[in-house]
């Protein structure tokens, strides 16, 4: 019930060199749980923004009245990675020893914000639901931790996909929950939900 909403939400997007340079933003209005109306869109060219500083942007909505006020900071991505199983970032014993030393009890108050890392190896899924008329699915896996989100590639026409990917996240809050969701890619349409598990970090 507001024409001047304030969200004050922060989201972290991991920008890799092989991704698109444009940040696409949509503003939508909900009438009820089923109906949404598009109130406007805007786009930000990430490559045009100065790095290592917070950029305050007022973005007019295209073909609609109103504007969006945002703070966008482009900074080097540290601690986050996606790799194949054979080149696991923490697989080297020397590196694991350095990590153990860095997070030992005597160093726990050296940097309060540096809690640690979470490494997830996404191997495969078994007996997924068939989402397509062909009796198959085009599954991919999304991992969410706090406001961090990473995803695997899509394995097409397969109910037993193997991804064999390693995801490394920096932990910002030990009370966060890792959510792992499997979707079926559906072209230009929103992906279909195939299943989900939630793992509290305190249970690991």
UniProtKB/TrEMBL annotation:
Topology with respect to the bilayer: Multi-pass membrane protein
GO biological process entries: regulation of neurotransmitter secretion
PROSITE patterns according to UniProt: C2
Record has Transmembrane as a keyword: yes
Keyword terms of this UniProt record: Calcium, Membrane, Metal-binding, Repeat, Transmembrane, Transmembrane helix
Predominant localisation class: membrane
GO CC terms, sorted: synaptic vesicle membrane
GO molecular function, one term: calcium ion binding
Keyword Calcium among record annotations: yes
One Pfam family linked to the record: C2
UniProt subcellular location: Membrane
Domain named C2: residues: 1-59, 93-204
InterPro entries on file: C2_dom, C2_domain_sf
Family of this protein: Belongs to the MCTP family.
The name this protein goes by in its record: MCTP2 protein
Organism: Regulus satrapa
Gene: Mctp2
């Amino acid at each position: 019930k507001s024409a001047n909403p304030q969200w004050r939400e922060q989201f972290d997007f991991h920008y890799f060199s092989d991704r698109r340079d444009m940040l696409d933003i949509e503003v939508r209005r909900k009438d009820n749980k089923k109906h949404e109306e598009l109130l406007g869109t805007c786009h930000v060219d990430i490559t045009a923004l100065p790095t290592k500083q917070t950029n305050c942007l007022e973005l007019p909505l295209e073909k609609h009245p109103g504007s969006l006020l945002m703070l966008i900071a482009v900074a080097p991505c540290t601690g986050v990675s996606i790799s194949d199983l054979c080149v696991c970032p923490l697989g080297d014993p020397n590196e694991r020893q350095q990590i153990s030393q860095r997070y030992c009890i005597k160093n726990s108050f050296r940097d309060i914000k540096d809690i640690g890392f979470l490494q997830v190896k996404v191997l495969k899924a078994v007996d997924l639901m068939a989402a397509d008329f062909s009796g198959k699915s085009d599954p991919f896996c999304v991992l969410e931790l706090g406001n961090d989100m990473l995803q695997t590639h899509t394995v097409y026409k397969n109910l037993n996909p193997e991804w064999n990917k390693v995801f490394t996240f920096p932990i910002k809050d030990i009370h966060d929950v890792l959510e792992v969701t499997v979707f079926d890619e559906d072209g230009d349409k929103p992906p279909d939900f195939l299943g989900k598990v939630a793992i509290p970090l305190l249970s690991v």
